[in-house]
Amino acid sequence: MWCKKSFIYKFKNFFNLTIQKKYSVIASVLENANIGENAEGWVKNLRVQKELIFADVNDGSCAQKLQIIIPKELKTDALTYGSSVHIRGKLSKSPRGQLELVAENVKVLGPCVVLDGYPFNPRTTHPPEYIRQYIHLRSRTNFLSSILRVRSSVTKHIHDFYSSKKYLNVHTPILTSNDCEGAGEVFKVQPDCEDTIKAMMQDGKDKDTVYFGSKTYLTVSGQLHLEAICRGMGNVYTLGPTFRAENARSRLHLSEFYMLEAELAFCYSLEQLQNHIEELLKYIFIETRHTNEADLSLIDKENSKPPAWLQKKFATLTYDEAQDILKKKKVVNTENGLNKEQELALVDYCNGAPVFIVRWPKDLKSFYMKECQDDNTKVEALDLLAPITGEIVGGSLREDDYDRLKSKLPSDKLNWYLELRKFGNIPTGGYGLGLERLLQTMCGITNIKDTLPFPRWPHNCSM
Amino acid sequence: MWCKKSFIYKFKNFFNLTIQKKYSVIASVLENANIGENAEGWVKNLRVQKELIFADVNDGSCAQKLQIIIPKELKTDALTYGSSVHIRGKLSKSPRGQLELVAENVKVLGPCVVLDGYPFNPRTTHPPEYIRQYIHLRSRTNFLSSILRVRSSVTKHIHDFYSSKKYLNVHTPILTSNDCEGAGEVFKVQPDCEDTIKAMMQDGKDKDTVYFGSKTYLTVSGQLHLEAICRGMGNVYTLGPTFRAENARSRLHLSEFYMLEAELAFCYSLEQLQNHIEELLKYIFIETRHTNEADLSLIDKENSKPPAWLQKKFATLTYDEAQDILKKKKVVNTENGLNKEQELALVDYCNGAPVFIVRWPKDLKSFYMKECQDDNTKVEALDLLAPITGEIVGGSLREDDYDRLKSKLPSDKLNWYLELRKFGNIPTGGYGLGLERLLQTMCGITNIKDTLPFPRWPHNCSM
Predict the structure, then answer these.
(1) Does B454 contact A172 at a Cβ distance shorter than 8 Å?
(2) Which residues of B touch A423 (CB under 8 A)?
(3) Member of which family (chains A, B) (predicted)?
(4) Bridge partners of A46?
(5) How far A462 CA sits from the closest chain B CA (Å)?
């Protein structure tokens, strides 16, 4: 018999020791001053005084910088703003109680000659549009590195939220033969190599179908796949990239973006879904305020206090109620549905708090949404509108009646989706949340291109 | 001032209450018998006795089933194997101490008529090749649902491992203008819609370049992008889909698969990288044995005890030593490098334990790998070989000398990658680990198509 517990204990103990020696990133040093005598990172600021030099060093592990005190005789020409350094020394507390490292040895690992084309300058707040021109270097700025830390934390909190509820993390596919009901905003995928295509070519196949045997697209949503797993394993979620081949440039659109999608098993009402979404959002906001307070303030001073709506219940309006409000406010729209201006007007109407819009006209929504029992012109759908971005979540109960779904199925290719209802079917509901828009709302980032490390949009796929 | 701690406390308290009421999945009920009086799930087995019916119900939250005791008068015709049910009743302990639910009300949510085309039968172990034909339904089998739970847990342990070390989770892009040095095994991406293409067409552009302004591919690795973030923010990792347009069908290859990649900042030696990889692998294996013991045993009885190598240090062989061993064993190869047979022979030589192969001939490896200081025909690269799959990890120290890298750069398109070395450069090393191969090794799954929910391979992209 293998004694699991004692082994795991021994194992963890062994590795904790080694971790303490090797991984003294600045975030860990600031949490526990006993674990490091070295510092590695980039010089963010340098103040030269008579006998001493004060260098603020950051290694990306947190927003905070570690102050290094360097005796003047250890200064070399290469020790400049932007250079990377390895410092050996002694940690101590400054008269003000701040942790600092008194250097005994300073090694410049990589110099940084600003005049040689480095685009950033010390003590300068470069505007986001300027920083965006230097995609490969922009993680070296305080602004973007704070955003990327927030993004990483939000991702962690999302996984923790679902894990605590025992949701299954499902890796839904990127490649799919589902063309999204012919909506026309998809990317298609082919092998690039002509030799591969030639070798695989058979009668009746063309370049579009030769590799997979069917035309293949980049996913626009993992929902249908999630529903398949949900109908065998219960509550599921997925967090990953999705794609839109729109020819639209805006501060809210990307060609590649992350979507969080979840499907709730045994979901009997839209209210059940709404409560879950509200809990999720509040959890992410509160946890991130806890883990990344300094980053949030650095991104936007407005973030220094949490939004008031975190302590209140989200409002709910029916689609018809929302239209009445917009008419009274004279924010009208010649097209169907809600446009961005109207969405933000509704958020404004709710004092800047997120608001659910429910019970949508059937013809504005997708085939898989469940009809309202008391009104078959409406579906059990919801949009959640939020400040800055408008729509941030879209969801619905799913049509669970086999015959009704069959009559609405847009393509034979989706027979597999229909068949999910044939055997041991369950009522489910689900939603999709745009990660980048969530970050915009949370951090007050006006341009979506600043919410992720490598944005892709029409005419731009650099790197 | 906002009183954060007390607010978070109140918030968590509030939600814990609601969680207890709503989320009584079977995994939670088995952990804490106080939290549920209802059960929802699928009937996995049904035994009819004189007065009582015993139904084993599973909801996908764990491998275990909850036994439901149903008085005969509550039985309906629809209550069969494969049907989904909602049970209200009272939890109690059986004479053997096992938790069971005595039903007071039984509702069949979705019937399952096996004769109407349901491919699975009760008390039958269907072979994986059979199950694979029913991709949309296969999460309803014990075999695949156990694998998907292990996959979800492994994913969680990976995130926890890096989070504990304060690594940044970076979402590297799927779309890239980097063609992977013209290796020819990439997929290219275009908008599917002819109208979009027409509207965006400009002089000198073709269909391949019109949307993004440059030819665009699906990523084969996030490494180069990770290196860009690593050189501003330190330790980073990414876990996500990668793609190969190979015309190869094997039990080890997929067209879309998940890769875990990490880049270690301030990485001075291959040994530092090896220790980190060994720690990662052992952590994942041990944690998963802890969280998914029942699933592992269900997938393969051989998994009932952990592999002996978990308690030993991984062996290391140089590439030259490995070749000598293979010559003595007469496992030879006319091509360069190691083939699968040789990889497995080396694992066998190490008593079935993972083994690092280091110091590879330069011409077998990529341009970005650092030359060995004492032998410029070799690079500081490693492969980790493991049972069942052979190569499971590939990694290296990265060339950090600007001029040497410049001389080896395969394309001007990678000038951004070169420029990372120009300003505040640091020594780094990194690796990629195939998630599906890890699952094969961990669980003893011979065909890689059974390690993920929706496998894609040449001639197959169903759903």
Answers:
(1) yes
(2) 82, 110, 112-113, 116, 118, 137, 140
(3) Belongs to the class-II aminoacyl-tRNA synthetase family.
(4) A55
(5) 6
Closest C-alpha among A388, A161, A170 to residue A280: A161
Quote ipTM for the complex.
0.94
Which chain B residue's Cα is nearest to A245?
Answer: B191
Give whole-number Cα distances, A329 to A316, A349, A410, in Å. Answer: 18, 9, 38
Inspect the interface and report whether the beta carbons of A140 and B168 lie closer than 8 Å.
no
Longest dimension (CA), chain A: 84
Q: Which of A189, A241, A259 is nearest to B218 (CA)?
A: A189
In the block, tokens 């990658």 appear at: B417
DSSP A369: B
Q: For chain B, state the CA radius of gyration.
A: 27
CB count in 10 Å sphere of residue A131: 20
Of A25-34, B44-53, B245-254, the range with the lowest mean pLDDT is A25-34
CB-CB contact of B149 with B292 (8 Å):
yes
Give per-residue pLDDT as tens, B430-453: 999 999 999 999 999 999 999 999
Segment (H or E) for A294: helix A293-299
pLDDT mean across residues, chain A = 92
What are the residue ranges of helices labelled H in A300-414? 319-329, 340-349, 402-408
Domains of chain A: 4-120 (2.40.50.140), 143-174+219-450 (3.30.930.10)
SS3 call for B428? strand
AA letter at A98: Q
Nearest to A23 among B110, B140, B165 (CB): B165
CA B256 – CA B239 distance, rounded (Å): 13
Q: Which residues contact A96 (CB under 8 A, 6 or more apart)?
A: none
Distance CA A99, CA A91 (A): 7
